[in-house]
Each structure stands twice: as structure tokens, then as C-alpha cells.
Amino acid sequence: MGERVLITGGAGFIGSHLVDALLKKGYLVRVYDNLEPQVHGESHKIPDYLNKEAELIVGDIRDRDKLKKAIHNIDIVFHFAAAVGVAQSMYEIAKYTDSNTMGGAILLDIIANEKHKIRKLIVASSMSVYGEGAYKCNNCGKVYPKIRSLEQFERNDWGMKCPNCNADVRPVPTSEDKPLFPTSIYAVSKRDHEEMFLIVGRAYQIPTVALRFFNVYGPRQALSNPYTGVAAIFSSRLMNDNPPIIFEDGNQARDFIHVSDIVQACILAIEKSEGDYQVFNVGTGRKLSVLDVANVLMDKLSFKGEPQIVNRFREGDIRHCYADISLIKKVLGYEPKVKFEDGIIDLVNWVKLQKAEDKVNFAIDILDRKGLTK
Ligand code: UD1
Fold this sequence. Notes:
By secondary structure, the chain is of the alpha/beta class. 35% of the residues lie in helices and 16% in strands. Helix 4 packs parallel to helix 6 and helix 7 (230-239) packs parallel to helix 9. It is globular and about 60 Å long. Residues 84-86, 126-128, 213-215, 227-230, 233, 245-247, 252, 254, 290, 314, 317, 360 line the site of uridine-diphosphate-N-acetylglucosamine.
């Protein structure tokens, strides 16, 4: 009989792919998910893609009694339940802190105070905990600039500067030892997650691993959620024959990782003990600009127009961050398998079969009204 795994947020984009992989490997899987309307639609419908072999408990992560029942007989927990929009977290401050920080706290409180047989905990952290990534300055070497100034934005100058000598700096891979400087409420809640899980895991001797996911893309992204990741947002715009809206100048860079490589890292984290009580980057080590992603998607979805580059900053955003993956390669034997050029075709082939409502302008209006775009 396989071990029993609980995935909170398991009906979502990343969780549901992990469900499939774990079932295939012989684990018994239980999903705990609130079927959030912003992700799953107003009818709280169970997504068609959710594997029928998994047991589903519909509940909010803050519902202590229900969550306590969900933990019954579980050996391994993946905590993925979270609100995920960086920009939205800048005005839904209490909601993000409540569902993410408090939600995680309730799960840990149950683990600390109730009977259970959990032997492993994995928490989904995020590259956003770093704030800006690492940079190289020609004069000062490796530096960690924090945030750009408003006065810089007024000049449409989007680049990062050296915190010591103010020279222009270039991004380099970010490793786990970079000091954390979260720039959004979402990022603060993710830093809370990883620290809380590691502290409680250590105290109760439950091996715990925090995985800092970089920018995940792939089939099952919530296309009609205007606060989802940029590849899904651009896809939804293009399907509705609208150009992608690009903040700043489009040259901001991220590390785009196909969801199957995230799943690979998750499985290594439970099947190997070498990573216990540690934090790992889960990315590809390659940086791509937002404009590159827009261009590839416009090409693959046969869009004839130009992207709309708005030259504005979205509060909470960082300029560049991509992963140094040497630690996870060395300790867990992780190796990213999907090249962006192939992974994006997988996303596009799926997107073409979907319907998506483009609510991006509506979301940007809210940010504008609140002064969150500069
Ligand atoms: C994303 C995830 C976050 C995850 C993190 C890990 C979402 C909503 N956010 O954050 O949960 O923890 O990766 O790396 O899935 N952009 C545009 N136009 C748009 C939307 C975005 O130009 O319409 C730009 C943004 O300004 C930003 C970049 O694209 O510069 C990436 O934005 P986004 O996809 O929201 O990702 P992250 O903030 O990196």
C-alpha cells in the first residue's frame, strides 16, 4: 500500500499536476482545496482536469476542524494552498496575510497539537522572497540592490543600480543564500511560510523542505484570472485578440519553469532525505525577458499586432531574478528537463482548446485607481 499524501491547494495549477504524478507512482492522494472562485469560476466547479483517483475535500485552509480531518492518516503533506497574485496582494493585504500566513499557521498548529503520523512536510515558497535577484557591478562585484526609486521611474529608467556606487548593474543567478528582501505582501507571506514550516518541522522533528518556485507555466493555468502568471495572462489576451500589455519596457527577466520540472523537484524532495530542513531554488537557471515571452506567444498564437508596452511600473514587481540551481542539482539530483521552446508549445496547445475571459484591463484599472502603477 502506498503512502498517503495530502496536497493543500491540490486542485490548482501546480498541485493538480503533482496529484497526477504521485498517483502514477503509487501514492494515495488526498486534495484539500477551497475551489477559489477567482481561479475556478464562480460556480466552485471541480476542475475537469482533477484526477478522479484522488480524494477531494473542499474546504478553506483556515477551517481548522475540516483541515484536522483532512490530515487523518496522512504521511506526507504538500502545502500549496495560497493566494498567488503579487499585484493583488498590494491592496488585498488582510486577505493575503490571512489565507497565506494564517492558513499556514493553522496547518502547523494542528500538526503541533493534534495526533498525526506526518513524516514529511513540503512547503511551496517562491522566488519572490528574494525581492530583487543578485546583480554584478563592474566596480563593486556581486551586489544586492533593493528597490528602484520613484524618481528613476519618472525618467523611464527601469534598470537596476549598484547600491554602493550607483553604476548600472547586470543580473546574475540568484542563490539561496541571498538576503531576503520581499517587495510585496504576497512575498512577505511566502517568506512567512518557509520560515514557519522550517521552524515547526525542526521543533517536532518532521523533516521539512521549502521549495522556492520560480515562474511556473504550463497547461491548467487559470487563464481567466487576471492576477495569474504572465504567460497565462498574455495567452488569455491573445485568445481574445488583444495585445499583451507589458509593464516597464519588457526587458525585465524571470526564470520560466515548466510545471513538470516543479513536479520533478517535489518528488525528489519527498523521496530523498538529503534535502531535509533545507531551502531550494526550483528554476531552470535561464533568464528570459517578459518581451521574449510575449513575442513567442504572439507568434505561436498567430497574433499579427504589436504588444502594448506601457512604460509603467507595477508596485510589488521586481526587475530581474533567475535561479542559481546548483544546490538542488547537487543535493537532490534535480535536472530541469523542459526547454522553454518546448514547454511553451505544450502551454499553447492546451490554451488553444480553452475559453478564457480577458479581465486584464479590469485588474489594471483597479491598480491604477489605487496608485499602484507608477
Ligand atoms: C509569479 C507568481 C507568483 C510566484 C512567482 C515565483 C503569479 C500571479 N505570480 O510572480 O505567485 O510566486 O512568480 O516566481 O502567478 N507583467 C506584464 N504584463 C502583465 C502581467 C505581468 O508585463 O500583464 C510583468 C510584470 O510586471 C512582471 C513580470 O511580468 O515584471 C512577471 O509578472 P508575474 O507573472 O505576475 O510574476 P511574478 O511577479 O514574478
